Amino acid sequence: MNVQVKWMTDSRKTEVIDIHEKATVGELLNKLNINNHEDFLIVINGKNRLSDYVLHNEDQVKIFHSMAGG
Q1: Domains and CATH numbers, the chain
Q2: How far apart are CA 11 and CA 51, in angstroms?
Q3: What pTM was estimated for this model as a whole?
Q4: Per-residue pLDDT tens for 7-61?
Q5: Sequence-ordered list of residues with C-beta below 8 angstroms from that of 65, at least 6 positions apart, any chain
């Protein structure tokens, strides 16, 4: 299945990622070489999702860097 990933970073890169059926957000992040999942906010089809959320074909995934307060 395919999901569209849009990086909401300086690059604003968009790419289509092929991943197996019933893959989770965590598995997608691992495939994208993002090891520390807590450093990122994941929005899928307009809703915040955690790493155990199961992806669906043609989901729209936006990846944001988490912000730290102080």
Answers
A1: 2-65 (3.10.20.30)
A2: 23
A3: 0.88
A4: 997 778 999 999 999 999 999 999 999 888 788 899 999 999 999 999 999 999 9
A5: 8, 9, 39, 40, 41
- Long-range contact list for 40-49, CB < 8 A, 24+ apart? 40/64, 40/65, 40/66, 41/65, 41/66, 49/25
SS3 letters across the chain: CEEEEEECCCCCCEEEEECCCCCEHHHHHHHCCCCCHHHEEEEECCEEECCCCECCCCCEEEEEECCCCC
Decide if 52 contacts 25 (C-beta within 8 A). yes
